[in-house]
Structure formats: C-alpha cells, structure tokens
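Friendly challenge for the regulars: who can give me the structure tokens for this chain first? No prize, just bragging rights.
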Amino acid sequence: MSDASTTHPIRPFQAPETGLREVIRQFTPNWFTATMGTGILALALNQFPVAVPPLHTIGAALWVMNIAMFLLFSALYTARWILFFEGARRIFGHPVMSMFFGAIPMGLATITNGFIAFGVELLGPVAVQIANVLWWVDAAMAVVCGIAIPYLMFTRQEHSVEKMTAVWLLPVVAAEVTAVSAGFLIPHLGEAEGLRMLILGYALWAFSVPLAFSIMVILLLRLVLHKLPPREMAASGWLGLGPLATGALGLLVLGRDAPRVFAAAGLPDIGATAEGIGVIGGAIIWGHGAWWTLLAVLTTIRYIRQGMPFNIGWWGFIFPLGVYSTSTIALARATHLNFLLAVGGGLIVMVALFWLIVMARTVHGAWRGYLFVAPCLLTGAIPNDFEAEAA
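First reply, four minutes later:
Bragging rights claimed.
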C-alpha cells in the first residue's frame, strides 16, 4: 500500500488530529528505548543489595508491563511498514532515527533476562527454553544492526563530526547487551550448550565493545572541538555510559560461570583466567564509567539551567544508568566490597526516580499526541542537522 505522504503534504504531527492511523504513520523505533528503560529498572530492582521482598514483586510486574509495551510497539511499527511503506523506508537514509534500530534488540534483551530473573519462578523450566529462543532472535537482530546501520552510514547517509552525537553508539552496543544476556543464561544450560553460549557471549562482546570505544574517542573529540549538542539532545550525553556499563557487566557475568564451563570442557586454567579477567576488566571499565557518569551529571545540570525540553529522548537517562547500577552490584558481589553495594543501591534508587518522571511525562505526551513525530517525514528531504533530533 502506498504511503499517505505521497498524496498529502508532509507535516509535523499535530495533537488535535491524533488518531490511530496517524500514530502508526509517525511511529518510530526510538519508542523502544522505553522498553529498554522499563526492562532495566525491573532487573535492577531484583538486584537491590538489601533484601526487600516487595521489590522483587514490583520488578516482576514491571517485566510483565515491559512485555506488553514491547508487543504494542512491535505491532505499531509493523503496521507502519505495512500501511505506510514509502514513509517507513525513509528511515534508512535518516542519520539519526536509523540509529534507534539498535533499541529493538536491546529492549528484547531485557525481556529475555526477565524470563530468567522472574519467569522461572512464574512459569517453571519452560521460561529458560523461552529465554533461550529469544536470545537467538536477539543475537541475530543485534548482529544485523551492528553491521547494517554502519554500512548505511558509510554508503547512504550524510554525517559530520560536528553534528555527531552519542546516538551513533546505539546500533553497535546491541551486541554487547546480548552478550550480557548470554551470561545470565549459561547457568541454566547444559555443559556443551553452556560452552557454546559462553564463547558466543565473548564474541558478541568483542563484536561491540572495541567499536563502541572507537566511536567514543571520536565523540570526545567532537565535544572538545564543537561543544555540547543542543539542549534538545541533552539525554544523549548519558548514552556514552551505556557501552561502558554493559562492557563491564558482560565481563563480570561471563567470567562468573567460566570456571565451571571451561572445567567441564577440560580447560580449567582458561576458566580461572576468564574469571580473573572478568573482575579486573570489569573494575577497569567500571572506573571509566564513573568518569563518564560524573561528566554526564555536570552537563545535565547545565542543560537544566538552560531549560531542557521534554522529548522521547529522555529515556536515554534510564538504561545507561540502570546497567551501570547492575554492573556496580555485580562488581561488589565479585569483590565482596560493601561500599560498592551501597553505591549500586543508591544508583538503583536514582534510576527508579528517573523512570517515574520520564514514564509520567511519556504517558502524558503519548496521550496528547505530541511525542509521535517521525523526523524523516518532517521535510521532503533527509535532514542532516539537529532539527529532527529533538524527536
């Protein structure tokens, strides 16, 4: 079916005209960042360092809510491709919105991890089987995003260092998020399957983290030379924390079960080495994440003083900090350092507060309709400036 935009002028979404068909026409993958944020909060609450039974129940409820959100968003985005194909395909040429394809597998990863954290208790052993299937789907999507989006950046899209933001990280970070999910699955798998999952987890980690670090070097240069992005992109400053937090967590969770898995394969020395790399490597990357967190706090305070408008990009505050909180807890339990448990608990409280604020404003914006804006439909040409990034 042809896109309605071929017969009607392309214009921004207007709240008074809100309807399901228009919501579908304007629906974009950045909405999946809400599933990332909701999912990581559910998992973080389950890792809270102090035993508070209601937190597990709240986390499970958020996980179920996250599944519903993911299914709804998937239905809306699929409907856009069916009903408005010509408009939907413009995303491949958009230098910003195309990056958010990475949010889809990352959102799914939080659901996969939830089947281990909450599903086993609710559904029994079948939850592990579901998580295993979802992991392979998630891994395939993460690999495709990690290759296809950079290829489009190289061949089709227009980019410049001056207009670069941390959203460049989104498509490449998805693979390391999947690597973390592998670490959570391994304890529930047999010896042979566990070894395969462990090796693939390390491979996916390497598929993502070195490239993310390379992007962050360029990002740092861009910030020094061209200063902060516009206030509409304020939350993007936190995205740099994502690959650091996830990279540290990946080494920790993969190394945690490496001794058992490698010993079963007749390679006990490699298992002990992998466990040590997990702790030392995790601590090193966690320290780098602390630098990025403090810098993100300072820049956010500056943005707040300038007047920071709300947009769907605010979900960028939630997931990176949520993963950093869980990596802090994982590092604390690996090293038996209580002060890290306190830090991790404080971070989880911050994540919960941020989630309440952002979710409330998101629900309001969705109800009123002003959050449904597809930047690639705002003009006839593909923009290469910050005009559409506020969406």
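The chain is about 70% helix and 0% strand. The radius of gyration is 21 Å. Your move, everyone else.
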